[in-house]
Structure formats: C-alpha cells, structure tokens
User: Fold this.
Amino acid sequence: MRIIQTQFRVDQLMLKGELFLPDTPHPPPLVVGSHGLEGSRFSAKQQVLSRLLPENKIAFFRFDHRGCGDSQGDFLQETSLEKRTRDFLAAVSHVRGLDRTAPHLGVFGSSMGGATCINAWQTLEKKFGRLCGGVLCAAPLKSHTIQNIPTQGTETRPDLPLSFFKKNLLFDLTDQAAFLHHVLVFHGDADTVVPVSNACALFEKMHLPKHCIIQKNGDHPMSSPGDQAEFEIQALAWFKQIFHLSDAA
Assistant:
C-alpha cells in the first residue's frame, strides 16, 4: 500500500486528506469517504476502510471536512450541509486530478457524511459520469428526525446553540435520494440519534440495485463488535461487486 498525504483548497480554506493506494499494476477504482458531524478522517469506519479497501485493490481517500481534524475553518462558523457538500465535491475533483486512480468512483458516508454523499450525488454524476455506487451508515434523510442533538461543548469546540442547527443543518433529502443507485445502507434499529426510519425512507426512494442491513439492537456509532465485523464483510463485498472485482482479479 502507498499513502499520499495531500491537501486541497475550498472556499479559501485548506483541507487535509490522505489517499490510500493499493499495489496494483493498473490505476484502481476509487472510494471517497465523508465523516460524521464531529468526526474526522480518523473516525473508526474511515480507518477500517483505509486498510480494508487497498488490501482488496480499491483506493480510498479520506479527509477532514472544514473545521474538523487538521483542516482549516471554525466548526461553528463553517459547518453546514451545503458547505460539507462543497468539501466533498472538491475532494473528489482533487483526487481525480492526481491521476492515480481509475474513473470508477464510489462513495462512503457515515451519519452526517451519509447525508453529504446523498446531497452530492447528482452533482457528482453530472461532473464525473455515472457513479458505481456507495455505502451509507446511519445517514439522516430528514434533519427534523434527528434526536439527542449534541449541543454540549467538547474539548475541540464550544457549546452549540440550537440556533446553529436551525440555521445550518435543516434539510430534507428525500428528492435527492431518488438519484441514488447501487447503494448499501447500514442502520441500527436502536439508534437514538438518527432513527432507523431514515434508512427505511432512504431505501424506498433509491433505485435498484440496493440493499439495506438493519442491525438488531445497533446504536448510532455501530459500537457492537459483531456489527462492526458485519460492516467490514458486507461493505467490502458491496464495493467489490459495484466495481466488478473478483477475488481472482
């Protein structure tokens, strides 16, 4: 595996990313990931995919959205679905410009990152051609369904007023979901942050082929080791399927 440390600019902000390349004789297909609201490129699923995909002939690009991790920007001032969508589109453009991967593109998003992928999907297809597909975990389709809003401050940010969420994070992606295809959805039926009803509504709107895995007693961060193991197996199988990769390839 080769790792390329890189950065790219969006709206005058410098964002940090890493491209994980498999050791293959030909340019590999590419998956670009989007982390959750308060996550980073070092979030658990991002780290799993940065190992798992290159081991199976697929490149993976992970990056910190503005205001998160090592990227520039104030979280409170710079966080919104539209801005994160611009980050994601810029990330794909940047990696494609490195000329290290094949045209075949897939996406991965967890929680807010899943909403970002949904919102970016149509623009990605207009700009880069038909997507091969993607994997989404605990993605909110409608923001008003989100529960346990994280208003309390952390080590990296101050308290978040409710006005922050009302101004920046109100969305309904039902119409955008109708453009999705070749998508695998994960969601826990005990998710107390993003209710599982979002997965059901998302699955109904998407085009075939599609698949939905509802994890029994699964929580929002997918903390169960069994659920994590299922994610690794099924997500890898899905990406290999949409990229038409076989174990013998």
In short: The CA atoms of residues 56 and 247 lie 8 Å apart. The two ends are 17 Å apart (CA to CA). The domain at 2-242 is CATH 3.40.50.1820 (Rossmann fold).
